[in-house]
Specification:
Blueprint lengths: L1 H21 L7 E4 L3 E2 L5 E3 L4 E8 L4 E7 L2 E8 L4 E8 L5 E12 L5 E14 L4 E15 L5 E14 L4 E12 L4 E10 L2 E10 L1
Parallel strand pairs: 1-9, 3-9
Antiparallel strand pairs: 2-4, 4-7, 5-8, 6-7, 8-9, 10-11, 11-12, 13-14
Length: 208
């Protein structure tokens, strides 16, 4: 009976030391903030204009993931001498508005549980400052004018006027009437158009 009691005591004694050894050690995780800079300081661009953004972030840890929002990522490279990650992206918009460009990078140090995170963003306004650069006349129709004797005494003409914009697009504007003399082969016409609250006058040469 004493032998059995001694064996039970020994088993309990051994287990009291074995159980703590089975517990897994906890790994502490921590996230450190890093400063990320964006080189582009452009705050306003034209519709269709391309802008390049470049960010730099100091290297920490052994691996990283990064990404752009609002811009098209080009590449991310490590500059060994500077000890920095350099990321490049481009932005282009076909509509007016205010856009936000953001960049995020996260780095980690293997199994240590330590990570580093940084982000930077910038707002950019896209405007459509198209201006009037000229005017023209198209679809000209010419009609011969004769006197009562049937002799040609001139030509009546009418056509459609249009506005020429700085982006090379045109907008139909109105109708114009003019008169050519009998021997007149061309004529300089003052074409006046109004746009954006302003009046513009251009000399347009018309061939009969």
């Amino acid at each position: 009976m004493k032998k059995i009691l001694i064996m039970v005591v020994l088993v309990v004694f051994i287990l009291s030391f074995s159980v703590p050894a089975l517990a897994k050690p906890s790994v502490k995780t921590s996230v450190h903030h890093i400063d990320v800079t964006m080189s582009s300081k452009v705050s306003e661009v034209q519709v269709g204009e391309e802008v390049t953004f470049v960010t730099t972030a100091p290297k920490h840890g052994s691996s990283y993931i990064d990404g752009w929002e609002g811009a098209k990522a080009i590449e991310t490279v490590f500059h060994k001498e500077a000890g920095e990650y350099i990321s490049t992206a481009t932005f282009i918009a076909n509509e007016e508005g205010v856009y936000t460009i953001s960049y995020l990078i996260e780095m980690s140090s293997g199994k240590s549980g330590v990570s580093f995170s940084g982000t930077v963003s910038q707002k950019i306004e896209v405007v459509d400052n198209v201006t009037v650069t000229g005017a023209g006349i198209k679809n000209l129709i010419i009609q011969e004018v004769k006197d009562s004797q049937g002799n040609t005494i001139g030509f009546n003409a009418f056509g459609e006027t249009y506005i020429i914009w700085s982006n090379n697009e045109t907008t139909d504007y109105g109708v114009i009437y003019l008169r050519f003399g009998e021997d007149e082969l061309s004529k300089d016409i003052n074409v006046t158009v109004e746009a954006d609250g302003n009046s513009y006058t251009y000399i347009v040469n018309i061939l009969r």
